[in-house]
């Protein structure tokens, strides 16, 4: 059981490698730490300085939207068999992170203390996703990549490892992503690093999402610094995670996906695996809805410095 759990969370770490890399790059630019105390991301939550102060010592953020609440004591009767309380900062709603393995549950309002979160050590059913309590801020954009046996494995084999931008339900959100060759010091920003080899050879991409009306949502992917072009990744994916309360039509909560003014037809197939394969094989922008996990997946070819994706909801 222990090797299974360790394997699961090591693989999750590799899936989140882009998030860690972006946090490290941001640290170079502005000094913000990779792992942050709750008050740094949510300073307006006065409860963190009063009755919720104890959570400053046992919860932390990775960058600004991924909240980690690890169990810090051995599982025993003293902690109800691996259960713990989790505080979710005020000002945002929060979704329990399940790594796109199942549908999202309902959002929890910020300012709530989730009592006795069940993080006990077992691998029954889908429980492995909850052994480390993880929450995501509503509206967040969290990048993931495919699992590798070591960092850069797929590229080293001449294969792409496209990024998936996971867009959570919420009125608005933004994320800045950094890409470079991952090896040389030439990617370092000249103005920020005292290094003769620093040459600004990186790409900074700002991703924003917001609702433009009750039933329409806009996602913008804009290169704000374009000093690097990935060698293998000619496209990326956007995963639209749906709230369980969203109305659904024949293709799930979305009835239209438009990129650069062109409306895309939804891919059809007999199973989620077949749909995913059709999306991977598509030579143009495409999308499909996976009803098993309540997520819409969009393939977007990265062929412009600014790409706008418009979503129409049922």
What does this entry show, briefly?
This protein is an alpha+beta fold and 314 residues long.
Q: What does this protein structure show overall?
A:
- The chain has a six-stranded antiparallel beta sheet with strand order 1-2-3-8-5-6. Strands 11-12-13-19-15-16 form a six-stranded antiparallel beta sheet.
- The chain has helices spanning 2-15, 17-30, 38-41, 153-156, 272-281; strands at residues 35-36, 60-62, 66-68, 83-87, 93-96, 108-109, 113-118, 134-137, 141-144, 164-167, 172-179, 203-213, 216-226, 235-241, 254-259, 262-264, 286-290, 295-301, 306-313.
- The chain contains five helices and 19 strands.
- It has 314 residues and is of the alpha+beta class.
- The radius of gyration is 20 Å and the shape is globular.
- The model has no long low-confidence stretch (mean pLDDT 95).
Low-confidence stretches: none
Pattern of helices and strands: HHEHEEEEEEEEHEEEEEEEHEEE
List the total number of helices. Answer: 5
Principal-axes shape call: globular
| Number of β-strand runs | 19
Tell me the strand percentage band. Answer: 25-35%
Mean pLDDT score, rounded?
95
**What percentage of residues falls in helices of 4 or more residues?**
10-25%
Structural class: alpha+beta
- The spatial strand order of the largest sheet comes to 1-2-3-8-5-6
Q: What about the largest sheet?
A: 6 strands, antiparallel
